[in-house]
Amino acid sequence: MERPSLEFNLPDTHEEGKLYVVDSLNNLNKLNVCPAESQHSLDEEETTGGTGGSMAGSNTRNQCLFFITFILTLIITLALVSFVIFLIFQTRNEVDQISSRLLSEKKNIEELKKLNNIILKHLNQSRIKE
């Protein structure tokens, strides 16, 4: 009586690697040779295959993650730009207020100089009279 063998005949992983490389090259060749409208049918063939379905799922997940990251980046950028614009307007308002204060102070200083000159003239005249 023969005992059944408990050993499994595992295929050589090196051979599997060669098959994977050849399959990848064939897919690349199909992409380069086929026109754009037949690309859709190639994509459908890949999604129906055993490993192609999981690759398509991860590709869709990666695209979704990229899209979410892109949207978040746009929102954050928009918020930062809005904040910078707000700061620019706020700074401009402050500068306008300060410049108007400076102009009014300049007018006050000029009026004080005129009064000072008038007082000095009056004092000089009063000294002359004495």
From TrEMBL:
Q: Which residues form a coiled coil?
A: none
Q: Which domain of life is it from?
A: Eukaryota
Keyword annotations of the record: Membrane, Transmembrane, Transmembrane helix
A Pfam family of this chain: DUF4577
Annotated region (Disordered) at: 37-57
Instruction: Indicate the transmembrane segments per the record.
Output: 64-89
Quote the protein name from its UniProt record. LSME1 protein
